Structure formats: structure tokens, C-alpha cells
Known about the structure:
It is built from 16 helices and 13 strands.
Amino acid sequence: GRRATGWSELSLGGLTTTIAPQYFWQNYPKQIEVTKDNITISLMPTLQRGQYSGKAKNQAEDTRLFFYLQNDGYKLRAGMNKRHQFLFAFGENADNIPIEYVDTSLRASVPREQYALSRAFGPMGVEPGSISDLFVEKLDFHLNLFTNTLESQRTYGMMNFGDWWGERQLNWGNLEYDLAQGLFMSYVHTGNDLAFILGERAALHQMDVDVARQHWDPDEVGFHHEHCMAHTGGYWSKNTFGAGMENTISNLGHVFNNGLVTYYHMTGDPMGLETAIRIADHYIRRKSGDYSSFNYFNNWNFDAGRFGGWPLIMFMTAYKGTGDPYYLNAARLIMDRVYENEAAGGAWPNINKSRGIQQFVLSSTMMQTGVLITGILEYYYETGDQRIPPMIVRATEYIAENALDENAGILRETTALDLNQPHWAECIDVGLAAAYEFSGDETIKKVLFGNFMFRINQPKYGSTGKALAQMIRFEPMALKVMDEIAEDFK
């Protein structure tokens, strides 16, 4: 066939040696040679002249798939890393080795009750209810839709496999919204094996390509690339294509390490935890402006919510992965700004140019607020800071009052006074669920149920990696409350 598994077997005098590489064809180019005396696997084989010329359907596909295969060689950015894994089996032939032992890791799984009682993945019911059952059904559909999209876009190659493509037309997504963590959370809630497999692939890609694990400049170690062309940018001059992002970029609203630590705990692979810590350390020391780094928290502040939210998640993840209070203190310094920046009426409004209104308005965006509240909750679950529950209740009351579409019964994109806004209220159900648990407020309960059901019933969120991550990274943390209140809405 056109997709070789790469398995090879050499038998001599009744003795058999089998070599099985993980994800062989998916990480092309690869080459394998078997003689009567040797098995040779080339991880970066010599390319023939013009080997990939004309293989793409158009320029966009060429830049997507073959950006690192140039001039009959390999062009790799500083900081890129690629690890290959192999199974060596002695005395066994290939027919006796289940392929699932090779293409997915052994994983640590425990009964649902232990996940729920540990709160390792946030709030989780000991027994799934009707909404959790619905989530199982929807997840299966959308994961298959997602894998079909990956296949149709040919998202393979040793620098691409594990990521998704199509952000702003030409960018690789670099697993925005921490898709790896969303997939692992989905696996824990549903037992869906495909969710774990896709999560592992995502984590492997993120560690290898999206993060500079090594670099000739030690200050660059831990740099996490934002979604861009060629995963790292820098392959083309600026504005070559009129779309996409060709340059190397990063900011605090696009750094994710939660999935890497979960991958470490589930598989025992130390590279997950090591990479997560390098990311956290890098952004603490980096000096490049409030949106891109902390400069050891020297006069640092945030405006849009995700520039506080994702770093909170990042540092709490590092703290829970290591127990080092250094990272808990970093999270505390962010929380100092969270308390200071809360508006008098609740939430953290920032200046946005609203759709259809040609002036700047003070508003809260659901995604930004949702990410920030998720980070705040991570801090609360570890510290028990009693200032947090009423603060989250105030934020969600503000949202319910200012962003609810009364006719549709669901939330708009922002609290700006624009009734033509789309209903893109992603990431916020985590906060709504927590606020209802803290307060028992019936209005918050109604808004939560309406918004959650609207989102989970959307037909195509599995068609893009970004939409899938926005759903499965956040909605599982609201399932416990949704299961508990479902009977009230029948």
C-alpha cells in the first residue's frame, strides 16, 4: 500500500528480532532497508532531487505540507525538536505484537470515582447523568468529524503530525486552547479511546515543534509559538501570501502546558513535565511587554482576560506538577491584578471594538472572561481563597445581565450593546457552573443550561481544531452541574 507501517523483522538461526516504529508513515519522510544481515531505518533520509515537487495541489498546500522540505534537504528552525520512538521485540515475530502497543502509550487509568474525588480534572460527578451521556454521544461524532478533517487536509509529516491546520486560512493551529488537555479531559469523562490517542499525538507534536525545548540562545528555551504558518513562522518574508501569519510570534494568551502535564501523569513520559516547566520558566523571565511576558512581574498587568487566564492555568499546572511554591507565587501575583482589575459592577471589562458599532466600547468578551475564570478557579481549588466565590458570582451576574439574548435564551459574544452579535459565547460555561454552585442563583442556572445546550448541539464544532478545543477544553468542567440541574428543564 501507499502507507507503510515501517514494521520490519529479521530472523536468523531461529532467532527473530522485530522493530516497530511509532507512527512511521505519519512522520514522513522515512526510509527502511532490510538486508539479510541488517535493518536500517533512516529518520531523515536523503531526499532525491525534486522528490516533493508537484506533490501539492496548490501553493497553499505546498506551504502547509512541505515547508521544511526545501532545496532537496531539510530546513528546520532553531528550537525544533523531533523524537522518534521504536519497539524492539526479541524472540517474537510481528504477527504476535499488537499494533496498539506501538502507536499509543500504555496509560494510567483509574475508575471514574477516583477521578471525581481527586478533582484532578476539576468538578466531576461520581456517576454520569443525562447531559454527560449526551456529551459522550456528541464527542464520538465530533472526534470522527475532526479525524476526517485531518485526513482530508493531509495533516501529516514529521513537523505536522498531531496538529490541526486552517487558522486564519493558512496557519497551523499550534493546538490553540490546549487541545491536548481537552482531549484528555474528554477521555476521562467518557472513556473514548480516540480522545486519548488524539491527545497523545497532540502532546507529542507540541513538545517537539511548538515549543523550543532546546536553543542556542538559552533565553529562548521554553518559547511557545502562537498559531502561525509553518508552526514557528520565519520561513517567508512578511505578507508573502496576504493571509496567515508568516512571522514568529508568541504572547501570554497563547501559551498552554496543562495537556503536557496531564500527558506526563497518564503515560509517565517525563518529557511532558519537563517541557511544561520550561514554558512556565520562560515566560516568567522573558522581557517583551505585558502581553508577551512577565519580566519577573516588574510592573506587569493585563487587559484582555485571556492574558491573565492562560498564565494562571500555566502556573497552577506547573505548581500541581511539581509542588514548587515558586509557581504558586507566580499565580498569586496574577491574582493580585485580578482583584485590582475587577470592575465595580463585576467582571473585567476591556476596550473592544464591537461588531457593527464604529466606536470603542467597554465590554466583556465571553471567551476572554471564560478563560480568566477558569484560571481563577484553578487557583481557588488549590488555595481555597474565599474572596473568589463572590467575585465569580458577580462576574456571571454582570454577564447574565448584559450579554443575554432574551429571545434566544443564550449569550452573545460580548456585553457590548450590539444585538446583531453572533452567539459565540465559548469557554464561559465553566464560570457559570461554578457561580451556580457558589450561589444557587436561579438566573445563572437558567443562563448556564441554555448556553451549554446551545453549544453542545452545534453541528460542526469538530470540523476545526479551534472550535473543537473551545468546546472540549471547557465544557467538561460544567458537566457535573449540568447533570444535577437537567431534571429542572424537562
